[in-house]
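Whiteboard transcription, Tuesday session. T.W. wrote the structure tokens on the left side:
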């Protein structure tokens, strides 16, 4: 490693805040009754003061620009700050630097509190020894001063940023600098600032920092629960949160998830196949799973991705083993053959009070062959699921699915984040 300490800029270097900024600007325009702007025009709101952008691109009067700025800030404070994405590859880079004992810090022009919120929300805060941004009352603080605060006397260090101000700040403090071209700064701006090194993509930072790439660790996560617990919504929300946080995630589902497996899904769920025997059903679910493991799950895990699977083997044990009365052990056996050892590292089991689940199912009026099963069937499924966490406490975590989508999502995310962190997954 070339440096003992590495300081990162935030916006445009670690995270891409473009979506939140563009959408908040569009929101302000709409609220003000102004015609919408093209994406290209909205992109220009990144960087310059907002009042200036509203005047320049939407032809607002000085008074209007202030009103628009308030509207913008209102939306940005509510949701815009979360419409942010960690650049792909950053998480792995930070993990590699941390593994090799680097001191890591952030020095950003974004307000300190907002910066900490963003780093915490995307679970990056744990990589950093220090975060520095202007405090609320500090209007004219220089990048050099922020770097000084972040480094606390360290000089064997480098500053990484996407704007010339980052690079000038590093120069002024007397350390090496690395300019990145994947952020918001134009190439001329960066080359003109003459950084020690210049990289096009996140991956280029490994060579510039003299750090070896760590081989990525896979993680297999399944999400389970009886019909009506909101599992598919939670899988999607979790997928977005993890992707935005910079994980490489493959979202998939069962039955199905690959071309051949989806064909088997059609047979399984078609209401035309009312006469299908329970054994046939169990074998078809297992067959679809075997194909899915081969085509999707194993390749994604081999490339070090996080696989997020909406239902997996536990569904067969609950639905076919318990629901269809085939016996949980027997169904587990045929699935052992199908999955060939590929088991989840973590299974999130969404659970719900049986009465609430029943009411939801009544309201939902099931549309596929399984959902249309009677209540005794679903009660057996529920009981089987409920018993699972005690049988495999290391793998299966029960989470209460009652509450708003956001509330449940937060519970799910907390469990998942802890496991990813403990496993050193990046
Ligand atoms: P899914 O598409 O997950 O439906 P939902 O989003 O309503 O949960 O699954 C379709 C149905 O297939 C569902 O009722 C559960 C059932 N199923 C089994 O019976 N066994 C299995 O192994 C799997 C994966 C699903």
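and on the right, the sequence the group agreed on:
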């Amino acid at each position: 490693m070339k440096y003992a300490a590495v300081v990162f800029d935030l916006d445009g270097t670690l995270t891409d805040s473009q979506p939140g900024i563009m959408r908040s600007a569009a929101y302000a325009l709409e609220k003000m009754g102004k015609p919408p702007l093209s994406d290209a025009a909205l992109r220009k709101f990144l960087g310059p003061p907002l009042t200036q952008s509203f005047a320049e691109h939407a032809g607002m009067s000085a008074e209007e620009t202030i009103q628009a700025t308030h509207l913008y800030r209102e939306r940005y404070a509510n949701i815009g700050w979360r419409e942010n994405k960690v650049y792909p590859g950053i998480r792995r880079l930070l993990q590699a630097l941390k593994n090799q004992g680097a001191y890591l810090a952030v020095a950003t022009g974004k307000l300190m509190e907002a910066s900490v919120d963003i780093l915490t929300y995307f679970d990056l805060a744990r990589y950093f020894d220090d975060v520095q941004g202007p405090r609320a009352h500090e209007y004219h603080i220089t990048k050099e001063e922020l770097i000084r605060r972040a480094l606390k006397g360290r000089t064997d260090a480098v500053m990484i940023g996407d704007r010339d101000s980052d690079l000038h700040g590093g120069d002024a403090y007397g350390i090496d600098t690395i300019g990145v071209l994947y952020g918001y700064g134009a190439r001329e701006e960066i080359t003109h600032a003459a950084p020690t090194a210049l990289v096009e993509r996140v991956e280029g930072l490994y060579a510039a920092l003299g750090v070896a790439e760590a081989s990525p660790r896979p993680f297999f996560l399944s999400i389970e629960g009886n019909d009506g617990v909101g599992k598919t919504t939670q899988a999607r929300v979790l997928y977005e949160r993890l992707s935005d946080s910079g994980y490489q995630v493959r979202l998939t589902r069962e039955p199905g998830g690959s071309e051949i497996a989806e064909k088997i899904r059609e047979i399984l769920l078609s209401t035309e196949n009312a006469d299908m025997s329970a054994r046939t059903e169990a074998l078809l679910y297992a067959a679809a799973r075997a194909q899915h493991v081969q085509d999707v799950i194993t390749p994604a895990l081999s490339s070090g991705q996080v696989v997020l699977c909406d239902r997996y083997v536990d569904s067969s044990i609950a639905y076919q083993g318990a629901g269809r009365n085939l016996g949980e052990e027997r169904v587990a056996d045929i699935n052992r053959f199908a999955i060939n050892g590929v088991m989840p590292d973590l299974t999130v089991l969404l659970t719900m009070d049986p009465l609430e689940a029943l009411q939801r199912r009544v309201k939902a009026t099931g549309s596929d062959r399984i959902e249309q099963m009677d209540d005794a069937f679903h009660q057996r499924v529920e009981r089987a699921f409920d018993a699972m966490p005690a049988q495999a406490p290391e793998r299966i975590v029960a989470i209460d699915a009652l509450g708003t989508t956001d509330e449940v999502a937060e519970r799910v995310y907390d469990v998942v984040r802890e496991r990813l962190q403990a496993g050193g997954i990046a």
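Someone added at the bottom: The pocket of thymidine-5'-diphosphate is lined by residues 227, 231-232, 254-255, 269, 285, 310-311, 315-316, 319-320, 368, 370-371 (CB under 6 Å).
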